[in-house]
Design brief:
With 260 residues, this protein is an all-alpha fold. It is built from eleven helices and no strands.
């Protein structure tokens, strides 16, 4: 089957904005940030955030910080947004991330979101699978080499998830040993970030089943109970992630159901 390449386009650089446009740009960026961090976060507030970033970037596209933040809103919507719009948001985000990486080739946020968005595009459309996987793996390895622990061990967590879910060789990069190595690293970096615990539980379940190892399955059950499922459990690190935490709890229940 023909494979597609993840978009490599960047945002066109505009002529210097007028004073009025500059003011409007600053205002839009503030609104975009405010909408992303509004409590409680939900799909509507992040869609507003993405729209404001889009309007700001239409005025000028030369500020690294604003470009990666816009990419962050887009990857969030790729994960949690309305299903019929996810792919569109991810492609838009890739354009921002490509532009951010071009402006600052070693900037960790730009590299992280470029990888995450390419991987998400591969998830949403298998036509982009091979290219998306190559980009996400390359970017995360680059970040780890640069000693990045962005978003609580993000590069290691993302790589571990890729290695545990992708098919193994020769089809793709799947590799349980690598997954385990990177998952342990992410947990060492930040055990209290619950996405790390959720990913480790998934890995333990998969390995427990593959290797017929009940101790691993038991450990995954215990982990999910402890961090997601016992009564009145709360995220120890909230930081605007209540929405995500509820989604992670749903994922935890699905895993418990799947690996009874």
């Amino acid at each position: 089957a023909a494979c597609s390449k993840a978009p490599e386009t960047t945002v066109d650089q505009k002529p210097a904005p007028t004073l009025r446009e500059d003011r409007s740009y600053d205002h839009l960026v503030l609104e975009a940030r405010g909408a992303f961090f509004k409590e409680p976060r939900d799909i509507d507030t992040v869609e507003i955030s993405a729209q404001k970033y889009k309007e700001a970037i239409a005025i000028r596209a030369n500020e690294y910080e604003v470009l990666w933040e816009a990419a962050r809103s887009c990857v969030w919507l790729g994960n949690y947004g309305p299903e019929d719009k996810r792919k569109e948001y991810v492609k838009q985000g890739l354009e921002y991330a490509n532009t951010a990486v071009k402006l600052k080739p070693k900037g960790e946020q730009g590299l992280f979101y470029h990888g995450a968005l390419a991987g998400k595009l591969a998830d949403l459309d298998f036509m982009y699978g091979a290219d998306g996987i190559k980009i996400i793996e390359g970017r995360m390895l680059q970040l780890i080499k640069n000693k990045s622990t962005y978003i609580y061990g993000g590069p290691d967590r993302v790589l571990a998830t890729l290695y545990m879910r992708a098919p193994g060789a020769p089809l793709s990069v799947g590799d349980y040993d690598k997954a385990l190595k990177h998952m342990h690293r992410a947990l060492d970096i930040e055990p209290h970030w619950l996405e790390n615990q959720l990913s480790m539980a998934e890995l333990e379940f998969r390995l427990g089943k593959k290797r017929n190892n009940h101790a691993l399955t038991k450990s995954a059950h215990r982990r999910l109970q402890e961090y997601f499922l016992k009564p009145d459990v709360k995220p120890p690190m909230a930081m605007g992630s209540d929405y995500e935490y509820k989604e992670w709890q749903k994922d935890a229940r699905k895993l418990m159901e799947e690996y009874k």
